[in-house]
Amino acid sequence: MADPTGPPQHSFTGILKDIEGQNPHKRSEDGSLGREEHDTLSEKASSYRRSKPPSLDIDKSRPQDFDGELSTDNVLPSAAVQKKIEEYLVLDSNGKSRTFKSLYAGNNKARRVLIIFIRHFFCGNCQEYIRTLSQHITPDSLLRLPISTFITVVGCGDPALIDMYAKETGCQFPIYTDPTRSLFDALGMVKTLNMGNKPAYAKKSTSRGIFDSIVQGLKHVPKGLALKSGDHRQVGGEFLYEPFQVSTPITTPQEEQHPQFGTLERPGNGNGKAKADEERVEEKQITWCHRMKTTRDHAEIPELLEVLGLDSQAHNPDIKDEKRWQEAARERKGTGVTMVPEMKRLSQAARQSAEQSHDL
């Protein structure tokens, strides 16, 4: 009889747990799987993919997981919610903590920051999303905008998997994790296993994506990380932080300090210096957001280009993906009003000023 508290038998997590429990893995001196053992595990994953069980052990207590798109919305988080989550903690790849606010505000931060919340670290759909995004949007292109802009990625798994994720996706942006999923919950992101329609950013077939995810998980069995990629039902979204005004002054860059994990204490030397520094930090708010309704429902790249203020015409997809890209360019998933119009006016004014100087 299936364990009612465990993952479904033929789910991604269930397969990993089953295989992990059946195999006392032989390791090489560096702790990695040997070639023969790796091939064996890959074949087991293939057999699971090819098998057609007579019945699937689906958790009937969560029917919404498979009943189509969830009825979530893209209403901007309230000011109270935005204030509350400022002190929530995230972890970097070394397991060091920092406040969520430090990702988008403070010294040496871009004035506009898009926070992308992804699913578990083995999710092939989200990996394809970040991989495609990294091909079309670079840190240099964002920092050259009239108002400095940047991107940060937040997952929900073990921080020890962050470096793997960055390597697999070619992500050029910082990646953090919220293992408690407190930010996901507070910002209204939901849970589902429904895949929805295939997005333009997805290049692999569904079966190939699932197979690759399982193999990734199996590679991390020796390190005890196969089941620590994050909640597989959790989906994410995108949230853009911008300053209240275009002309808001920026503070002088200083060395960043971070509170200890499990505390809400602000760094300082006891004389109020930390509080004074905080008061000079440029305040920001969420001006645009999108919450995923399915496991592959991230805002499409053409929409992100528009939201960030980049020229979408300068980013051409592969010919085989052109039709889906054009369809994605016509669709808008997120809601909000950004600073892009003001940024365009700044660019136009700068060009006119340069032309006048050239004429003189």
Textual characterization of the structure:
This is Thioredoxin domain-containing protein. Residues 349-360 have a biased composition (Polar residues). This protein has 360 residues and is α/β, with parallel strands linked by helices. The chain has a domain at 79-202 and 228-246 and 253-359: 3-Layer(aba) Sandwich (Glutaredoxin). The chain is built from 12 helices and 8 strands. The strands form 2 sheets. The chain has a 6-stranded mixed sheet with strand order 5-4-3-6-7-8. The longest helix is centred in the last third of the chain and has 20 residues, at 340-359. The protein is globular.
User: Helix share of residues?
Assistant: 25-40%
Distance between the termini: 85 Å
- Strand percentage lies at 5-15%
Overall average residue pLDDT: 79
In the CATH hierarchy, the architecture of the domain at 79-202 and 228-246 and 253-359 is 3-Layer(aba) Sandwich
CATH-defined superfamily of the domain at 79-202 and 228-246 and 253-359:
Glutaredoxin
In the predicted model, the low-confidence regions spanning at least 5 consecutive residues are 25-33, 44-61, 251-271
Main β-sheet, spatial strand arrangement: 5-4-3-6-7-8
Largest sheet: 6 strands, mixed
Helix-strand topology string:
HHHEEEHHEHEHHEHEHHEH
Question: Structural class given helices, strands, pairing?
Answer: alpha/beta
What radius of gyration results from the CA coordinates? 22 Å
CATH fold-type name of the domain at 79-202 and 228-246 and 253-359: Glutaredoxin
